[in-house]
């Protein structure tokens, strides 16, 4: 009797700066159990990904999360962390910087992106020259003239759900050819894992359609919305506070840490955080109830629940690393909670 063989796609983040890219390669494993603990450590050539020198090029891939691959028979998606040969985290490994071992922090990321027509180097739906009609009709739209790219978006949604990702919704965004999906997870590391796997699946869907997925936070200059990755977050204190003063104290703790946050909130974010198009300026900080022009929005649902809920940091860009975003938010919130 022949043994069954599984296809394990090992996925990792390379060392490119300022924005890391996804990488992946396939390992064939006999009689795979379908359990994370049975995914072996693997290695790759770090000299080809800006993560090692040619004379000592091996980097390790440590499996950290496992999902069913919806596009491959007997396939699995293995999210990994990049480690040095001695087993310590590689400098490019943002996941290892998250301090949330008890999974007290919950994150809901709103990932915006633009489907890109590589034949004209513009968003799909845009003419080769000139521009479509101004923003307004495209947000949460329906119809062939406004909702451009739905086939790819729906295919991606189905694949995410089949993989077991906790995608909570999708919608067309403000600019033509721009879309969004939302993922929620209890635990910051899991939240980052799911965004990266969802990004991987979206990139792969784009391959089949011949489209690029553009993660840049301001892909079209001018009077067009940029792309963000709004970070909705809570911990047990925010979920149970019942006190406006607690929320204000935590929000105020973000003001002196603006440089630390902006440093990991995505490349070229100054092009997006201008104070226009539903953003606060990159060099200013504000918070407010239902204020989409603030750095941090206090959702009306949190207020109506008696100040029990979550906050939304609207500054992270679409190209930010969710691991690094979560890590810095956790650090700031933990510091604020010490004095409560």
TrEMBL record:
<keyword id="KW-0547">Nucleotide-binding</keyword>
<dbReference type="GO" id="GO:0004356">
    <property type="term" value="F:glutamine synthetase activity"/>
</dbReference>
<dbReference type="GO" id="GO:0006542">
    <property type="term" value="P:glutamine biosynthetic process"/>
</dbReference>
<dbReference type="GO" id="GO:0005524">
    <property type="term" value="F:ATP binding"/>
</dbReference>
<dbReference type="InterPro" id="IPR027303">
    <property type="entry name" value="Gln_synth_gly_rich_site"/>
</dbReference>
<dbReference type="InterPro" id="IPR008147">
    <property type="entry name" value="Gln_synt_N"/>
</dbReference>
<comment type="function">
    <text>Catalyzes the ATP-dependent biosynthesis of glutamine from glutamate and ammonia.</text>
</comment>
<comment type="similarity">
    <text>Belongs to the glutamine synthetase family.</text>
</comment>
<dbReference type="InterPro" id="IPR050292">
    <property type="entry name" value="Glutamine_Synthetase"/>
</dbReference>
<feature type="domain" description="GS beta-grasp">
    <location>
        <begin position="6"/>
        <end position="87"/>
    </location>
</feature>
<dbReference type="GO" id="GO:0005737">
    <property type="term" value="C:cytoplasm"/>
</dbReference>
<keyword id="KW-0436">Ligase</keyword>
<dbReference type="InterPro" id="IPR036651">
    <property type="entry name" value="Gln_synt_N_sf"/>
</dbReference>
<dbReference type="Pfam" id="PF00120">
    <property type="entry name" value="Gln-synt_C"/>
</dbReference>
<comment type="subunit">
    <text>Homooctamer and homotetramer.</text>
</comment>
<dbReference type="InterPro" id="IPR008146">
    <property type="entry name" value="Gln_synth_cat_dom"/>
</dbReference>
<dbReference type="InterPro" id="IPR027302">
    <property type="entry name" value="Gln_synth_N_conserv_site"/>
</dbReference>
<protein>
    <recommendedName>
        <fullName>Glutamine synthetase</fullName>
        <ecNumber>6.3.1.2</ecNumber>
    </recommendedName>
</protein>
<keyword id="KW-0067">ATP-binding</keyword>
<feature type="domain" description="GS catalytic">
    <location>
        <begin position="89"/>
        <end position="340"/>
    </location>
</feature>
<dbReference type="InterPro" id="IPR014746">
    <property type="entry name" value="Gln_synth/guanido_kin_cat_dom"/>
</dbReference>
<keyword id="KW-0963">Cytoplasm</keyword>
<dbReference type="Pfam" id="PF03951">
    <property type="entry name" value="Gln-synt_N"/>
</dbReference>
């Amino acid at each position: 009797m022949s043994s069954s063989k599984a296809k394990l796609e090992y996925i990792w983040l390379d060392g490119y700066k300022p924005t890391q890219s996804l990488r992946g390669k396939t390992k064939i494993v006999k009689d795979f159990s379908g359990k994370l603990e049975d995914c072996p450590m693997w290695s790759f050539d770090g000299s080809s990904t800006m993560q090692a020198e040619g004379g000592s090029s091996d980097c390790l891939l440590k499996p950290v999360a496992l999902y069913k691959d919806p596009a491959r028979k007997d396939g699995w998606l293995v999210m990994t962390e990049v480690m040095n040969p001695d087993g310590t985290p590689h400098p490019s490994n943002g996941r290892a910087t998250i301090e949330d071992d008890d999974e007290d922090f919950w994150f809901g990321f709103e990932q915006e992106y633009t489907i890109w027509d590589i034949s004209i180097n513009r968003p799909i739906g845009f003419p080769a020259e000139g521009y479509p009609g101004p923003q307004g009709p495209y947000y949460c739209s329906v119809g062939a003239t406004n909702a451009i790219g739905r086939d790819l978006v729906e295919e991606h949604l189905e694949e995410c759900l089949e993989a077991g990702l906790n995608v909570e919704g999708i919608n067309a965004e403000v600019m033509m050819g721009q879309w969004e999906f939302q993922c929620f997870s209890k635990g910051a590391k899991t939240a980052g894992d799911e965004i990266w796997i969802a990004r991987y699946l979206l990139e792969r869907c784009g391959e089949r359609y011949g489209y690029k997925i553009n993660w840049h936070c301001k892909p079209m200059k001018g009077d067009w919305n940029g792309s963000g990755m709004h970070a909705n977050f809570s911990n047990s204190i925010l979920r149970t506070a019942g006190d406006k003063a607690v929320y204000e104290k935590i929000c105020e703790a973000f003001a002196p840490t603006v440089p630390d946050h902006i440093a990991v909130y995505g490349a070229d974010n100054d092009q997006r955080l201008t104070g226009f198009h539903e953003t606060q300026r990159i060099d200013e900080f504000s918070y407010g109830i239902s204020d989409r022009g603030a750095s941090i929005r206090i959702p009306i649902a949190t207020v109506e629940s008696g100040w029990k809920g979550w906050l939304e940091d609207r500054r992270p860009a679409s190209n930010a690393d969710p691991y690094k975003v979560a890590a810095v938010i956790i650090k700031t919130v933990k510091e604020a909670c010490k004095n409560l």
